[in-house]
Specification:
Layout (H helix, E strand, L loop, with lengths): L7 H13 L4 H9 L16 H26 L3 E12 H7 L5 E6 L6 E6 L1 H11 L15 H21 L9 E6 L13 E11 L2 E10 H4 L8 H12 L2 H12 L5 E4 L7 H5 L17 E5 L2 E11 L2 E9 L9
Family: Belongs to the FliM family.
Main location: other
Subcellular location: Bacterial flagellum basal body; Cell membrane
Length: 333
């Protein structure tokens, strides 16, 4: 255990208590010799560090944003999804915490082993179903007697949403989620042993007037091969490698080179009132703020980029670049 560092105020208070007799130095020494015991529950083993839990939270916050966009487009109604909590607990405890009858989507994530569970509260699931079938998003709870058509619609709706899950994990590992089955009774579902540690990501979800929770249950066995990638150090190192990747830089440069931009050569500018403009007639001369011997400026998408001079190339009007324009530079001014 690391030594605790006392502040100056705590040191002063301790010295004062010793000097007044409120505390006995011998008692303190005897307390230090005693073994300090901390209760540890082996059934609720914490197998992920706070750093790794934060990384999982960051991944699923991205997933929540993608899922909000996906369901908003599919259901054409107000949708709001946000991460409420990220916890690690035994699988048995998670099963006890969800409704007796609910919507359970079980999907695999190759190349990772194991399966992940996406549980959707019936209030949310039936609001989605009602919207897909042309309703107003009214919620009802009749999970125990889903028809084949309702089961198929829900399966397709959640199966397509897994593309967003693949994208959310893209910065850590390339996965290919595949929906395997849709179940309604958690008691018939045994993904891992009851004491297996799982990470449960809970989302606050609103679909129109309905609200409820969506939970993602990820067993430790699924994340075990990629646990080192869930550290902040890995994220920073991976980001730095991407920034220094010459192939990615070359691809980005090639893409930028084909971008279309608006380029304009500015002869000069002049200010005049609307009245003066309306009185203009043939052969009138507008005096510009640009002297003949001064170089012109070339604008790229309204940004001044180069000093230029006019000329011709193959009997066509053209400009020659003299120098790069630097804001505040006075080499031509």
């Amino acid at each position: 255990m690391a030594d605790e560092v006392l502040s100056q105020n705590e040191i002063d208070s301790l010295l004062s208590a010793l000097s007044t007799g409120e505390m006995d130095a011998e008692e303190l020494k005897s307390e230090e010799k005693e073994k300090k015991v901390r209760v540890y529950d082996f059934k609720r083993a914490l197998r992920f560090s706070k750093d790794q839990v934060r990384s999982l939270s960051r991944i699923h916050e991205n997933f929540a944003r993608l899922l909000t966009t996906y369901f908003s487009a599919q259901l054409r109604t107000y949708v709001d999804i946000s991460v409420a909590s990220v916890d690690q607990l035994p699988y048995e405890e998670f099963i006890r915490s969800i409704p007796r009858m609910t919507i359970l989507n079980i999907f695999s994530v190759p190349p990772l082993d194991g399966r992940i569970l996406l549980e959707t509260n019936p209030n949310i699931a039936y609001a989605m179903l009602d919207r897909v079938l042309g309703g107003k998003g009214t919620s009802s709870n009749k999970v125990d007697n889903l028809t084949e058509i309702e089961t198929m619609i829900m399966s397709q709706l959640f199966e397509h949403s897994l593309e967003n899950y693949q994208e959310a994990w893209g910065s850590v590992v390339e996965i290919e989620p595949v929906l395997e089955e849709l179940e309604v009774n958690p008691q018939f579902l045994q993904m891992v042993s009851p004491n297996e540690t799982v990470v449960v990501v809970s989302f606050n979800t609103s679909i129109g007037e309905a609200s409820g929770m969506i939970n993602i249950c990820i067993p430790h066995v699924v994340l075990e091969p990629i646990i080192p990638k869930l550290s902040v150090h890995y994220w920073m190192q991976n980001q730095q490698e991407k920034e220094n990747d010459p192939e990615e830089f070359a691809a980005l440069a090639k893409t930028i080179q084909s971008a279309q931009v608006d380029v304009r050569a500015i002869l000069g500018e002049a200010d005049m009132s609307i009245e003066e403009f309306l009185k203009l007639s043939k052969n009138d001369v507008i005096r510009l703020d640009q002297l003949v011997e001064e170089p012109m400026k070339l604008k790229v998408d309204e940004e001044e980029k180069f000093f230029i001079q006019p000329g011709k190339r193959k009997n066509k009007l053209a400009v020659q670049v003299l120098d790069e324009y630097r804001r505040g530079a006075n080499q031509y001014e």
